[in-house]
Amino acid sequence: MTSPSETYAAILGSTGRIDWKTLEPHFARGEVLVVGAALDLVAVAQALTADDADTVKGWMDAGQFGPISNEQAIDWSERHPDNLWAVVIRPWVLVQERA
């Protein structure tokens, strides 16, 4: 069995910078989830892999995590931010814009 810290480390090793152009096809398929800046991208991915529904629901209810909005997609398309980080937790691509 994999420990939580091993899972965290494995997910951390799978994160990386990404540009909006690469994300656009995933957005079109409804696969992009946005992680708010106040959250830890890896911790959110870990909660999804652990099927921690209560925690994930709490973040969603607080507006800190969820599907990307059309407005956010337009913003990223126009600004081309260079500080987007992503990790794939199939079937989702979790994305966070870092400060």
Automatic annotation (TrEMBL):
Cross-referenced InterPro entries: DUF2288 (IPR018741)
Domain of life: Bacteria
Protein's name according to its UniProt entry: DUF2288 domain-containing protein
Species, as recorded: Halopseudomonas phragmitis
